[in-house]
Write a structure and sequence with these properties.
By secondary structure, this protein is α/β, with parallel strands linked by helices. It has one domain (14-323): Bacterial extracellular solute-binding protein, family 7 (D-Maltodextrin-Binding Protein, domain 2), CATH 3.40.190.170. It contains 14 helices and nine strands. It has helices spanning 2-15, 36-51, 71-80, 90-93, 112-119, 122-128, 173-181, 194-199, 210-215, 241-245, 249-283, 293-302, 304-314, 316-323, and strands at 23-28, 56-61, 85-89, 136-151, 166-168, 185-187, 205-208, 224-240, 287-290. Strands 1, 2, 3, 4, 5, 6, 7, 8 and 9 form a nine-stranded mixed sheet that branches. The longest helix is centred in the last third of the chain and has 35 residues, at 249-283. The radius of gyration is 21 Å and the shape is globular. The termini are far apart.
Length: 324
């Protein structure tokens, strides 16, 4: 019995880094430790632990290890408090509140600078204010990236090549609606099944940020890459509301300031990496085409029904803030 007690005390000492009064935050993310998501999380961890003199510890779990690599389960576990914090795309958050789908509106932003500015404005704040309704607190905006289109059939530089193209999209209604307006044939499927579907030609195309296209080696089954920045995909550092409320004001301020600094770093990292990823994908054999201003206008016109439909779903208040 004494031996068991000694082992227990030793484990406790290790977990608390020698500080029995330290508070621990378990942070989950769906991507691996080679991702910009992880880099942002690690930056936050380092800043928080240093500035709190290790009174607050952050343990990072990549690949959503605590949720069996399931992003929806991960989000539910943060909402319930089983996991303390996570990095969540607004695409996933729109499954619990459709107002978050505003960021996914097609051709809403021309570039990262515009998107970052909007996230850091009253518009972004209005979305963060929704999170407590879902047992979450949002600390900072990061970025997954602009979503690009790949396919195995032909070069795309206009609307017409999209006709009847079988495209895998995220499992939210807006993306299905967008590609239907572009006359494509969209459907959703588990990302884990996508590579096989593309290699077997049951799917012609898919859309994702460049880092996902590269890390998932989709260049092995997709010949063409269309850089069109059609939909912006941000992430939010979320923490369980009950966990947040258990912290004092000083700790909350420390966590908040460190989060904003860490994910400003993460956003800059993504912008820098994307220029390098284009070259890497080209070296892997992908044929890259880029959208021009005239074609952007064609796609925007084709997207008008999406804006009309989702203004009511997103709510006029949020919609108008993003249109300013």
């Amino acid at each position: 019995m004494k031996r068991i007690l000694l082992v227990f005390l030793l484990i406790t000492l290790i977990l608390n880094c020698g500080n029995p009064n330290s508070k621990t935050i378990k942070l989950s993310l769906i991507l691996g430790d080679n991702s910009s998501w992880y880099a942002g999380a690690k930056k936050w961890k380092d800043l928080v632990e240093k500035r709190s003199a290790h009174k607050i510890r952050i343990i990072i779990y990549p690949h959503a290890q605590l949720a069996s690599n399931n992003q929806r389960t991960e989000l539910e576990m943060v909402q319930s408090g089983v996991i303390d914090a996570s990095l969540e795309s607004t695409i996933l958050l729109s499954l619990i509140d459709q107002r978050f789908s505003v960021f996914s509106l097609p051709f809403l932003f021309k570039n990262y600078r515009e998107a970052f500015k909007k996230a850091d404005s009253a518009a972004g704040d209005a979305l963060l204010e929704i999170l407590p309704e879902n047992n979450l607190i949002g600390l900072a905006w990061g970025v997954n990236g602009f979503r690009q289109l790949t396919n195995s059939k032909d070069k795309i530089n206009d609307l017409s090549p999209l006709k009847d193209l079988k495209v895998r999209v995220p499992a939210i209604s807006m993306y299905i609606d967008i590609f239907k307006e572009y006359k494509a044939d969209p459907s959703s499927m588990n990302f884990g099944e996508l590579f096989t579907a593309l290699s077997q030609k049951t799917m012609d195309a898919q859309e994702n940020p460049l880092h996902v296209i590269f890390s998932a080696k989709l260049y092995e089954v997709q010949k063409h890459l269309f850089i069109w920045n059609y939909s912006y995909d941000p992430i939010i550092l979320c923490i369980n509301k009950k966990k947040w409320d258990s912290l004092n004001k000083e700790e909350q301020t420390l966590l908040n300031n460190a989060a904003k600094e860490a994910f400003t770093f993460q956003r800059e990292m993504v912008v820098k990496q994307e220029k390098e990823l284009e070259k890497k994908l080209e070296k892997k054999g992908m044929i890259i085409s880029k959208i021009n201003d005239a074609t952007v206008q064609k796609f925007r016109k084709a997207s008008d029904p999406i804006y009309k439909k989702y203004r009511e779903i997103i709510t006029e208040k949020i919609f108008d803030l993003f249109m300013e």
